[in-house]
C-alpha cells in the first residue's frame, strides 16, 4: 500500500525525481513515516539521525514515531554551535563532496542510531554518517529510506537497509 502510494505521487520533473508531493499530502506523509519506522520499532533505537535537508524532514518525523530524539547532520553551510565531528564524503550522485557535521554532544556511547533519508544512490552521504556515528561511540542500527538505488557492494556496508522503493520500481524518466 505504501509502495503504491509513493509511486502514485512520484514524478520526474526536468529529469529530476520529485518526491515533495508526498510530504504535501498529510495522509501520505503519515503513512510513509509509519512505514519507515515499522521494522525498527523493537530494535532498541535511541536516536534518529537525518542529513540536511530532506533527511531533517523525514528523520524528525520518524523520530517522533519511534518516541526518540533526533540528531542532525548538517552540510557545510549553516550555523551549528559547539564542538563538532566532521567527515568529508566521497562524491555523491552529482559528483559533489560534502563536509558533514554533527554536534559531538548529539550522540553518546551506547546510543543505537537509525539513519533516515529520502534517497540513497552512491551511498556517500550515508556512509559518512555511519562513520560519524561510530566516532561518537554509538552504533548505526540501520537505515530507512524512501528509495534505494545503491550498488549491492555499498548496500552491504550500511547494515540493515529498509527501503520503501527500489530503483527498479520507479517509472521511466
Ligand atoms: O547516496 P548519495 O549519492 O550520497 O545521495 C543521497 C543524498 O542526496 C540527497 O540529498 P541532497 O544532497 O540532494 O540534499 P537535499 O536533501 O537538501 O536535496 C539525499 O537526500 C541523500 O542525502
From TrEMBL:
GO terms for biological process: purine ribonucleoside salvage. Its main location: cytoplasm. Keywords: Cytoplasm, Glycosyltransferase, Purine salvage, Transferase. GO terms for cellular component: cytoplasm. Coiled coil: none annotated. Residues 28-154 form the Phosphoribosyltransferase domain. It is found in: Cytoplasm. One of its GO terms (molecular function) is adenine phosphoribosyltransferase activity. Pathway: Purine metabolism. The keyword Transport does not apply. Homodimer. Belongs to the purine/pyrimidine phosphoribosyltransferase family. This is Phosphoribosyltransferase. It comes from Amycolatopsis echigonensis.
